[in-house]
Amino acid sequence: MLNLSIILVNKNMKKIVFTLLISCIFVNVTSFFVCTPNYCTGVQCEEANCNSTQILVPKGSFCGCCPECYRKLNKGDTCNSPFIGVPFRGICADGLICGPNNKCIEKKI
Length: 109
What we know:
With 109 residues, this protein is an alpha+beta fold. It has one helix at 2-30; strands at residues 54-57, 68-73, 90-92, 96-98, 104-106. The chain has 2 domains: 2-33; 48-109, Lipase, subunit A (Ribbon), CATH 2.10.80. It contains 1 helix and 5 strands, in the order H-E-E-E-E-E. The radius of gyration is 23 Å and the shape is flat. The termini are far apart.
């Protein structure tokens, strides 16, 4: 009986240690994506040449340093990422806004 409880404790400890290890790796990797206050100072931006299916967003890069072309979204298109914290590179076209259901809808005047 005693041997069985030691085995169960060891299995649970392995799961806990594994979970803690994965959590530490995740936190460490995500810390690389933090924009520091002076991050944009040394950034050299490339010219953004948008085509007819895109919209120029002046500070559209990840940390807001550079202009970027976002995909132009039409009425009914999904306008936000389904994943929290994941950048979304789309913007509703003129006359549309991102509605409460995360779809581009007509802007009411």
